[in-house]
Amino acid sequence: MAVHHSTLPNSATATAAGNQMGGGELYRLAKVWTIAIALITYSYYIASKIPKGFPRLFALFPVIFIFLLLPLNLHYFHLCGPTAFFLAWLGNFKLLLFAFDLGPLFSSPLPSLLHFAAMLCLPIKINNHKSEIRRIGDPIVLPLKILLLAVVIRIYDYRNRMDPAIVSVLYCLHLYFGVEIVLAICSFPAKVIFETPIEPQFNEPYLSTSLQDFWSRRWNLMVPSILRPTVYDPTRFITSRVFGPRWAKLLAMVATFAVSGFMHELIFYYFTRAAPTWEVTWFFVLHGFCMAAEVVVKAAVAGRNVRWKIHRMVSGPMTLVFLMMTAQWLMFPPLIRNGVVERTVGEYYAMAHFVKEKFM
């Protein structure tokens, strides 16, 4: 894949973007979340009183539909992205579970409205075992990753002189640091509200030794915790009656990745406002099939009592190379073609300019 480069934003562009952030975009953000809070209040006080099942799902349908529309009001990447992820994806999936008295929103009796809203909107999972908090949640690590992200953004200035493979590595680092930092920052209010540890969303994904390890135990852990009860478990239950438990497990795995791909496609639409090309969906479908094949091979090797095993020093780099190559092929092109990378970098400069102008 040829990586297309373009000129990074200058100070004038950053100033214009900073003014946009300080003006209409922040007003639109406040408007979007005011509507979201009103819909959450309706879900808590009215929809929750309706009998579980399809009657409650019908009552929640307007909320789910409006949650899909709200991110379209935002254009600033770093405001639209989290809003789309929290409302259109995680929020709606949690509401689907809540309609049937399942998932993190359900408890008897219901928690307070504040706790209900935090569980609905934020990518959090309460950790009741303080001793199990992983190192990735250490407060020292977050500033370090912010610094590393700043270094990556700075290196972008020289990417026209770099090999495309190196640029792709920069994109992967940018994606990882950017997503983890945003989700970690957004979890801070939950720590105050719940006064309890919050499980980190990432568990050092760069140490993954397989696709199963990466997707199930290390990368953006809030997503698999929501996709399992909404997609994986129902698909496995339904298909097991037809294909048997072994094939049902694999079909459920691929179906989960397909749904994840579709939701990523939706998120990409919010970013680009361009007609979907389905490349990102195929990225996740491909990984679903590859992970299913990986599970089959592991089971076959274990069933034959074969002790041969690829060392993690080999399987780790192989996993990361496969992730980066498939991302370069299928995930990054829609973002590059539609100028999302340039807009994202421009917004970093704009945010720095905005802070400098307002507070320094």
Automatic annotation (TrEMBL):
<feature type="transmembrane region" description="Helical">
    <location>
        <begin position="313"/>
        <end position="332"/>
    </location>
</feature>
<feature type="transmembrane region" description="Helical">
    <location>
        <begin position="106"/>
        <end position="124"/>
    </location>
</feature>
<feature type="transmembrane region" description="Helical">
    <location>
        <begin position="282"/>
        <end position="301"/>
    </location>
</feature>
<feature type="transmembrane region" description="Helical">
    <location>
        <begin position="136"/>
        <end position="156"/>
    </location>
</feature>
<protein>
    <recommendedName>
        <fullName>Wax synthase domain-containing protein</fullName>
    </recommendedName>
</protein>
<feature type="domain" description="Wax synthase">
    <location>
        <begin position="199"/>
        <end position="285"/>
    </location>
</feature>
<feature type="transmembrane region" description="Helical">
    <location>
        <begin position="250"/>
        <end position="270"/>
    </location>
</feature>
<comment type="similarity">
    <text>Belongs to the wax synthase family.</text>
</comment>
<keyword id="KW-0472">Membrane</keyword>
<dbReference type="Pfam" id="PF13813">
    <property type="entry name" value="MBOAT_2"/>
</dbReference>
<keyword id="KW-1133">Transmembrane helix</keyword>
<keyword id="KW-0808">Transferase</keyword>
<keyword id="KW-0443">Lipid metabolism</keyword>
<keyword id="KW-0812">Transmembrane</keyword>
<dbReference type="InterPro" id="IPR032805">
    <property type="entry name" value="Wax_synthase_dom"/>
</dbReference>
<dbReference type="InterPro" id="IPR044851">
    <property type="entry name" value="Wax_synthase"/>
</dbReference>
<keyword id="KW-0012">Acyltransferase</keyword>
<dbReference type="InterPro" id="IPR017088">
    <property type="entry name" value="Wax_synthase_Magnoliopsida"/>
</dbReference>
<feature type="transmembrane region" description="Helical">
    <location>
        <begin position="168"/>
        <end position="188"/>
    </location>
</feature>
<feature type="transmembrane region" description="Helical">
    <location>
        <begin position="53"/>
        <end position="72"/>
    </location>
</feature>
<feature type="transmembrane region" description="Helical">
    <location>
        <begin position="29"/>
        <end position="47"/>
    </location>
</feature>
